[in-house]
Write a structure and sequence with these properties.
The chain is about 35% helix and about 15% strand. It is an alpha+beta fold and about 425 residues long. The chain folds into two domains: about 150 residues, Phosphorylase Kinase, domain 1 (2-Layer Sandwich); about 230 residues, Orthogonal Bundle (Transferase(Phosphotransferase), domain 1), CATH 1.10.510. The strands form five sheets. The chain has a five-stranded antiparallel beta sheet with strand order 3-4-5-7-6, with helices on both faces. A three-stranded antiparallel beta sheet has the order 2-1-15, with no helix packed on it. The chain has a three-stranded antiparallel beta sheet with strand order 8-10-11. α2 runs parallel beside α12 and α4 packs antiparallel against α6. The termini are far apart. Bound molecules: zinc ion (ZN). Zinc ion binds next to loops. It comes from Cyprinus carpio carpio. It is found in: Cytoplasm; Nucleus. One of its GO terms (molecular function) is ATP binding.
C-alpha cells in the first residue's frame, strides 16, 4: 500500500536508513565521480560502518532498450565474484513499484582510477605497471571465461584503491559473446582510442579479442604516460594503427567491410615500426615490448588471449607481488605465506543471458527487476533503503549523468 510505504519511509531525517532499525548514514560531498552509466557517491553502510560507493542507475525505465541494458548490467553485477571485477555488494530496497524509477547499487569504494593515475604527476614504477597489468588481465580472464565481452575497457573504467588493488567496472556496454559469426553485433562500442582495428574496419562480428586490444593500448599508455593512438577520427585512428603495425595482410582484413579494405589498399604500403615501442619509456624492456606486441596484433584471431598473456614471463613479478601482499585468496600463517592453488580463477558456469529473450514491455521488465532486487535481499542483513526527503539525497538525484558526448562515439560508416 502506497500511503503506508510513504508514511514509514519518507519522514525520516537521515540520508539512507536501514529499513528496520533506522540507523542512519551521511552522504559525503567530497567524493563524487561519474561513469558512463553511473553517478557515484561515497556513503557509509550503517550496518557495519564501512565506507562503500552508492551508484545510481538512472533513466532505467525510459524504454525497453534501456530497461534491458540496465537489467543485464544489474544481473552481471550480482553474478560477478572476483577481486578484480567490481560487483554489487547490495541493492537498495526499491520503493513500491508505482514509485520505482531508479536503481541504487552499493559497491566497494575505490579511491581512484587508472586514467586519473596516468595523468597525475605521481611516478609509476615498473612494479606498478606490472601489478596493474596483472590485475587487468586477471579480471579479464575471469570475464571472458564467463562468456562476457566488456566492450569498453579504458583507463577510466579500471578503478584503483589506495593499496593498488584494481577492479574492472562499468558493464553498461558488456554483453555475452556471440558464437554465431553470421549474427551482426553493434559497432557502437569501445571509446575510440581503445577501439580494436576490426571494429574500426566495420567487422559485423567480433570476439573478446577486442578487449585485449584495449588492454594493449592501456599497457602502452602506462609505460609512456600518454595515449598510444590518439586520433581525431575513426579513419585517423585506423591510420595511426597501421603506421605502427604496417599495412595489414588481406587475411588480417578478411572480416572488414569493403569500404574499409579499399581505404587501406588505396593508401601507401606501410612497413611496421614496432621498435618505436622501446622509446615509450625506460621501462619498455624486451619482455614488456614482447608482450605488448602480442596484444597489439591486427588480426584478432592471432591476438593473445587473457589466459595466455598471464602466462607471459613479464607478469611473473606482478603475480608474485599481488599474491604476496594484496590478494584475498592467499593468507599468511606463522610459518609463512599459504598460496592459493589457482592464481587466476575462472568461472563456471558462464553468465546466462537467456532471461533477455522474454522481455517484451517496459512494465513487464520493471516488475521483473523489482522482483529480482527483492530476491537479492533475502539474507540475514537488514535491507538498506534511501530517504528521498533528505537534502543531500535531493542534490544527488538531481545530478546529471552520462552526457551523450561521454558515450563512445558512433563508428564510421564505410559503406
Ligand atoms: Zn592470492
Amino acid at each position: 500500500n502506497k500511503k503506508g510505504f510513504l508514511k514509514n519511509h519518507v519522514i525520516l531525517k537521515t540520508e539512507i536508513i536501514a529499513a528496520k532499525n533506522l540507523t542512519f548514514i551521511g552522504i559525503s560531498p567530497c567524493l563524487m565521480a561519474y561513469f558512463s552509466s553511473f553517478l557515484l557517491r561515497s556513503v557509509t553502510d550503517p550496518r557495519d560502518g564501512k565506507r562503500v560507493a552508492l551508484k545510481k542507475m538512472p533513466n532505467v525505465f525510459q524504454n525497453l532498450v534501456s530497461c534491458k541494458r540496465v537489467f543485464r548490467e544489474l544481473k552481471m553485477l550480482c553474478f560477478f565474484k572476483h577481486d578484480n571485477v567490481l560487483s554489487a555488494l547490495d541493492i537498495l530496497q526499491p520503493p513500491h513499484i508505482d514509485y520505482f524509477e531508479e536503481i541504487y547499487v552499493v559497491t566497494e569504494l575505490m579511491q581512484s582510477d587508472l586514467h586519473k593515475i596516468i595523468v597525475s604527476p605521481q611516478p609509476l614504477s615498473s612494479d606498478h605497471v606490472k601489478v596493474f597489468l596483472y590485475q587487468i588481465l586477471r579480471g579479464l580472464k575471469y570475464l571472458h571465461s564467463a562468456g562476457i565481452l566488456h566492450r569498453d575497457i579504458k583507463p577510466g573504467n579500471l578503478l584503483v584503491n589506495s593499496n593498488c588493488v584494481l577492479k574492472i567496472c562499468d558493464f553498461g556496454l558488456a554483453r555475452v559473446e556471440e558464437l554465431d559469426e553470421s549474427r551482426h553485433m553493434t559497432q557502437e562500442v569501445v571509446t575510440q582510442y581503445y577501439r580494436a582495428p576490426e571494429i574500426l574496419m566495420g567487422s559485423r562480428h567480433y570476439s573478446n579479442a577486442i578487449d585485449i586490444w584495449s588492454v594493449g593500448c592501456i599497457f602502452a599508455e602506462l609505460l609512456g604516460r600518454r595515449i598510444l593512438f590518439q586520433a581525431q577520427s575513426p579513419i585517423q585512428q585506423l591510420d595511426l594503427i597501421t603506421d605502427l603495425l604496417g599495412t595489414p595482410s588481406l587475411e588480417a582484413m578478411r572480416t572488414a567491410c569493403e569500404g574499409a579494405r579499399a581505404h587501406i589498399l588505396r593508401g601507401p604500403h606501410k612497413q611496421p615500426s614496432l621498435p618505436v615501442l622501446y622509446t615509450l619509456s625506460s621501462q619498455a624492456t624486451h619482455e614488456a615490448v614482447h608482450l605488448l606486441c602480442r596484444m597489439l596484433v591486427f588480426d584478432p584471431s592471432k591476438r593473445i588471449s587473457a589466459k595466455d598473456a598471464l602466462a607471459h614471463p613479464y607478469l611473473d613479478e606482478g603475480r608474485l607481488r599481488y599474491h604476496t601482499c594484496m590478494c584475498k585468496c592467499c593468507y599468511t600463517t606463522s610459518s609463512g605465506r599459504v598460496y592459493t592453488s589457482d592464481f587466476e580463477p575462472v568461472t563456471n558456469p558462464k553468465f546466462d543471458d537467456g532471461f533477455e529473450k522474454n522481455l517484451t514491455s517496459v512494465r513487464q521488465v520493471k516488475e521483473i527487476i523489482h522482483q529480482f532486487i527483492l530476491e537479492q535481499q533475502k539474507g540475514n542483513r537488514v535491507p538498506l533503503c534511501i530517504n528521498p526527503q533528505s537534502a543531500a539525497f535531493k542534490s544527488f538525484i538531481s545530478s546529471t549523468v552520462a552526457q551523450p558526448s561521454e558515450m563512445p562515439p558512433s563508428p564510421l560508416v564505410w559503406e
